[in-house]
Amino acid sequence: MVESETRPRAAVIALSGYRTGGALSALDDVETYWAGLRDDQGTLPSRAQLDPRGFSRALSNCFVAEAMAPRHLRLRLTGQHMTDLMGMDMRGMPLSAMILPESRPVLEDKIEALLAGDGAGVRLTLISPRSYNRQALFAGMILLPLARENGSPTKILGALATVGTVGWTPRRFQILGETANPEPRPAQDTGEARRPALTVIQGGIVEPEPAF
What we know:
Blueprint: E1 11-14, H1 25-37, E2 62-69, E3 72-78, H2 80-86, H3 104-115, E4 122-128, E5 137-145, E6 155-163, E7 174-178, E8 198-201
Antiparallel strand pairs: 1-8, 2-3, 2-6, 4-5, 4-7, 5-6
């Protein structure tokens, strides 16, 4: 095995380049729908307000989780993409089951801040590292808080989208960092597609360039 293919280095990931119809646009679709449900005072939408028709293109990527502790979320509803990534139905499982052990404390910190925060969402950049018969799989995850209802546990609307070939399952992810959330784009975006932007994140893995 060639050392340069496995040694952790700075990973250059085209984040914005996957927006506007790209592989990670499901995250934007869900965030835009969620933001559209908030009123002028910024009140969070409730689980009962969610209409799947509002983000139908992203349904496969979506999930609904509930807080089972200040730092942990349990998956209640999951889209098909999560099943495809893990090779099993993830309903009833903790969200941390999809995260590699070394990154779980980071996820717990983000969940705690989200549940105790001001109503803002969290967007994470992830990677499922390269291993035998599996290429590195880049991903994005968004977690958006929902309003509490009748004393029930706090619920989270989330989405997980990946860039690359899934390969053998299960695929678990390392958290590379938190991505600053852009302003949600209008529902009817008639403007010119945004130009792809590159973000350098330390600690990722650089794939060898393919030979053409």
